[in-house]
Amino acid sequence: MPFALIRIAATALLLAGCQATIPAQARSGPESFSPMVKRVLPAVVNIAVTESVSANDPLSALPQELQRQYRDRLRNNRRQEMQGAGSGFVIDPSGIIVTNNHVVGNADKIVVSFANGAQYPARVIGSDELTDVAVIKINAPAPLPFVAWGDSKAVEVGDWIVAAGNPFGLGGSVTAGIVSARGRDIGAGPFDDFIQLDAPINPGNSGGPVFDTEGQVIGINTAIVSPTGGSVGIGFAVPSELAAPIVQELRDHGRMDRGWLGVTIQESSEETVHVGGGVTIAAVDRTGPAARAGVRAGDLILSVNGRGVDSSRAVIKTVALIPPGNSVKLSVRRAGRDMELSVTVGRRPSGSG
Predict the structure, then answer these.
(1) Is-catalytic flag, 253?
(2) SS3 at position 254
(3) How many CB atoms lie within 10 A of CB 204?
(4) CA distances (Å), 169 to each of 79, 215, 233, 246, 278, in order?
(5) Among 111-115, 135-139, 154-158, 309-313, which is the least confidently predicted range?
């Protein structure tokens, strides 16, 4: 049965999941999650967003003279609103909230709602497309309830977790489950290192927290695999060990400066892999850093800073971690000849691969 990988922000278009045996010893789960949930749920928020999107031009099929005649009349009626919903959690009593980039990245208007009914407008402080993490800010008249980061490195497969958020617009919802796997690569980006969990999460849970049994945030709900669009018990969360430093960088600087070469990379053929691996440069941005350093389409990248590479993902991830303005050494093979090129890494443009 086919399935889909779904970013779990809920959206809707509006116009104007015989031999005796000795039981294994295991850590028992809590008798109830209620005490922990009561403590942390006030810091979990619902996020409503509105995006203005250009509609198709209704004049495009008309003769030129009629287009001119009616263009002024329709000028103010050519935009639609896309509304969506997601989740988030407060990490600082001053109003700093963590969510997913795909929840708020294109929003024109953001409204944050708390379980007690309070609502506040929010603004985006910064976001990182590669890890799907975003930070937003609200201004409240009093310090807000907040939650703390936990250590996702300490979480093991089989451990209990609780997911919270706004599934299908039903705010203040919690579900419980276990960690199903760690280090999942689901093809979402070069930094894929997801925690897989079986606690039901659904559209609208995006950006919500995953808690350990101590009530600390060990992940951010981000995506599900589903043949139906709803939960089938396969969800993915960005681990706190990856998210927390990115959140801090976004708070401090408003953006993540990722390294960029300005090339399009393709996986190498089986023949190339057989003779030593590497990835092939399919195209070079004529104004990008790689072009200025002499990199050409058709070059085979063998290593980056002395480390061998065998996938385009490995190259993108390695370069993205290098601060713009620093140099990277590429070992390449061109027409059967090996050479080393030094490239001054540029800043990754928003939306680039």
Answers:
(1) no
(2) coil
(3) 27
(4) 25, 23, 19, 27, 47
(5) 309-313
Catalytic residue among 87, 102, 180, 312: 102
345: tokens are 């890494």
Task: Delimit the domains of the chain by residue range.
Answer: 1-15+34-256, 259-347
Instruction: Kindly report the CATH class assigned to 1-15+34-256.
Output: mainly beta
352 is catalytic: no
- Tokens, residue 324: 């713009």
Among 127, 206, 231, 240, the one annotated catalytic = 206
Q: Which of 128, 132, 198, 212 is catalytic?
A: 132
Q: Do domains 1-15+34-256 and 259-347 have the same CATH topology?
A: no
Active site residue 132: yes
Domain 259-347: give its CATH code. 2.30.42.10
Judged on CB neighbours under 10 Å (0-12, 13-18, 19+), 350 is: exposed
- pLDDT tens sequence across 262-309: 999 987 665 544 456 789 999 999 999 999 999 999 999 999 999 998
CA distance 57 to 61: 9
Q: 297 and 281 in contact (C-beta within 8 Å)?
A: yes
Q: Is the pTM value of this prediction over 0.70?
A: yes
**H or E segment at 259?**
strand 259-260
